[in-house]
Amino acid sequence: MSDALDIALRLIAVFVVFLVLPLVIGQTEHKVMAHMQGRLGPMYAGGFHGWAQLVADGVKFAQKEDIVPAGADRRIFQLAPAVALLPYLLVLVAIPIGPHNAVGQALDAGIFFVLAVMGVGVLGSLMAGWASANKFSLLGALRTAAQLLAYELPMLLAAASVAMAAGTLSLPGIVAAFHWWWVPWQIVGGVVFFTAGLAELQRPPFDMPVADSEIIFGAYTEYTGLRFALFLLAEYAGIVVLCALTSVLFLGGWHGPFGADGLGWLWTLLKTALLAFGVIWLRVTYPRLREDQLQKLAWTGLIPLALAQIALTGVVKVVISS
């Protein structure tokens, strides 16, 4: 009975994180963008500092009419938002937030699990684009798939470098093996991993599949109301997962200057929050890439850097072992 209770408590904790942190990221994005770009609208709802903006957005989406195009594949159209969102819930189960088994479920091949499940989310976009009976939606979905193919490889190679350094595929094992002197020679892999993750999430400046100036809103053009809100929630959940993974793999996770045992979870959350702020900062700072620039960056920039990182890791491992 105690084992069942422990599993239930872990799942409840993961579910609470899944429900809360993406909303916090969404609210933070409203405020950061309002300050950086002088957007006054998000600062008014509810009075002080626009505290009710997130509530206002939720009410707005709930009130919108739920429209399904006449020519759409109704079942696939309705199922797509859930397929886009749920993989991030599964990934959170395997991400450690602190020492002493502070993880939903420790997996021996956790790094492969999280990367494989994150790639499933693209099926939601493909389903949405195909089922919408809209050529612009289909084009956006195909761009999403092409972007995933281009950026999945450097992301996997960068993660493999850390796994080589730690000598394990387990995420808690990688964090436990972390040393601060890893940061200088793994930083390139960290940048590659983070950049590729942003591209997979279609976050600016890699948001070509949803470029409003070309294809309206990509695979999600025909979506309204709460189904559209679920796609937005999937984006913010993806930010949480990407930033948490980057902090765990490349920034030491729960390791901090002091109190790693007692405050390990706090260090993980602080690193995740700092990276999430960087994601928002990038959105308001850089213009989006063209489609050809986006593909060129992956194949001629990130992949060679990731391969060089793996080679460097191999050399360092040989030197250390000798």
TrEMBL record:
Subcellular localization(s) per the UniProt record: Cell membrane; Membrane
Major localization listed first in the record, in broad terms: membrane
Presence of the UniProt keyword Translocase in the record: yes
UniProt enzyme class: translocase
Pfam families: NADHdh
UniProt KW Transmembrane keyword: yes
Membrane-spanning residues: 7-26, 76-97, 109-132, 153-174, 180-199, 228-252, 264-285, 297-320
Reactions catalysed: a quinone + NADH + 5 H(+)(in) = a quinol + NAD(+) + 4 H(+)(out)
Membrane-protein topology: Multi-pass membrane protein
Keywords: Cell membrane, Membrane, NAD, Quinone, Translocase, Transmembrane, Transmembrane helix, Ubiquinone
EC assignment: 7.1.1.-
Similarity remark: Belongs to the complex I subunit 1 family.
Record note on quaternary structure: NDH-1 is composed of 14 different subunits. Subunits NuoA, H, J, K, L, M, N constitute the membrane sector of the complex.
Database matches in HAMAP family: NDH1_NuoH (MF_01350)
Function: NDH-1 shuttles electrons from NADH, via FMN and iron-sulfur (Fe-S) centers, to quinones in the respiratory chain. The immediate electron acceptor for the enzyme in this species is believed to be ubiquinone. Couples the redox reaction to proton translocation (for every two electrons transferred, four hydrogen ions are translocated across the cytoplasmic membrane), and thus conserves the redox energy in a proton gradient. This subunit may bind ubiquinone.
Protein name in the entry: NADH-quinone oxidoreductase subunit H
Naturally occurring in which organism (per UniProt): Streptomyces siderophoricus
